[in-house]
TrEMBL record:
Superkingdom per UniProt: Bacteria
Gene3D superfamilies for this protein: MetI-like
Protein name per the record: Sugar ABC transporter permease
Disordered: annotated span: 1-35
Subcellular location: Cell membrane
Presence of the UniProt keyword Cell membrane in the record: yes
Membrane spanning residue stretches: 40-62, 107-126, 138-162, 192-217, 250-271, 300-320
Keyword Zinc on entry: no
Length: 331
């Protein structure tokens, strides 16, 4: 008999259908020159701002530089023609002993103001960070109001505060039994006038610095503070080891802005004392205006302004160099 193969046939596997192909959209043909136009568009947007800045800042700066190399007095101001004298104006300034006294007073004025501003602003920022919501709102609003007060208005208020006859400072000191301050002429004393101007500059500068530092303090993680406290670190140690290292760029930025702000302080001094009594409150910007207006030596005034710009730029260059060096060391 024939043998029948009873083995069951292998099950048939269904055929796998090929995956449907996705339709690939072809990119539209790129217009020739579109990339170049797209690259020039940001420059076209900022061109009006750059042009306005060059007109408002660049032209006066170039004009002042040219006048500093010319014999430019009242006659030349009217006629519009001036002779080129090279570095004669700069040699005249550098040979003047009064100029070097003003330079030293300028750096002293800047150092006192910047140190006081940074210390007080840091303390205010740390205090605001620890206040409750209501107290924080009150302090921040007060700082903003003080910051928003116009410079001339604030200077006038300080003039009346220290007025010899009607000033509230003399009245308060006299009421406390200090009879020597009755009708005391604050602005006739060089040291007193210098201290009043320092107080005014610090009062006007602390709000900006404090608000900026407080905003930076809110970015520090609370876990770092908690870890430092668990390790037994006190408030001073936490600030030196945690807060300041993390916020070093912000502190350096505020420091640089305050250097510029105090170095070029002019309106407050000119409105309050005009550099007096004597030269007790005369710094380089005031000296430049005095030289240009009192003796009609616009050339010497422009030279003094250029020296002021160079000195301020030198201070900032040294500061930024130190800042970049510290950043490279921490990397």
């Amino acid at each position: 008999m024939p043998v029948v193969d009873r083995r069951t046939p292998a099950p048939r596997t269904p055929r796998q259908r090929p995956a449907p192909r996705r339709a690939v959209r072809k990119a539209p043909p790129r217009r020739q020159g579109s990339g170049r136009a797209h690259g020039l568009w940001p420059y076209a947007l900022i061109a009006p701002s750059i042009g306005g800045m060059l007109c408002l800042l660049g032209y006066p700066l170039v004009r002042a530089v040219l006048i500093s190399f010319q014999d430019f007095r009242l006659r030349q101001l009217i006629s519009g023609e001036a002779d080129f004298v090279g570095l004669r104006n700069y040699r005249t300034l550098l040979a003047d002993p009064r100029f070097w006294e003003v330079v030293g007073r300028t750096f002293l004025f800047m150092a006192i103001n910047v140190v006081l501003i940074m210390v007080i602003a840091t303390l205010v920022a740390l205090m605001v960070e620890r206040l409750r919501r209501v107290g924080r709102t009150v302090v921040l609003c007060s700082l903003v109001l003080a910051w928003a007060m116009p410079v001339v208005a604030a200077t006038t208020v300080f003039q009346w505060l220290f007025h010899s006859e009607f000033g509230i400072v003399n009245w308060a000191l006299t009421s406390l039994g200090l009879g020597s301050f009755e009708r005391y002429p604050w602005f006739a004393d060089g040291t007193a006038a210098f201290a009043i101007l320092v107080t005014l500059i610090v009062w006007q500068s602390v709000p900006f610095a404090a608000i900026t530092l407080y905003s930076a303090l809110t970015t520090v993680p609370l876990e770092l503070y908690e870890s430092a406290r668990l390790d037994g670190a006190g408030a001073g140690r936490i600030f030196r080891s945690v807060t300041f290292p993390m916020l070093r760029p912000i502190f350096l930025l505020v420091f640089s802005l305050e250097v510029i702000w105090t170095f070029k302080a002019f309106v407050q001094i000119w409105v309050m004392t005009r550099g007096g009594p004597g030269d007790a409150t005369t710094i380089l910007p005031v000296y430049a205006v005095q030289t240009a207006l009192s003796s009609q030596r616009y050339d010497l005034g422009s030279a003094a302004s250029m020296i002021t710009v160079v000195l301020m730029s030198g201070v900032l260059v040294l500061h930024f160099r130190q800042m970049f060096r510290q950043e490279d060391e921490t990397r």
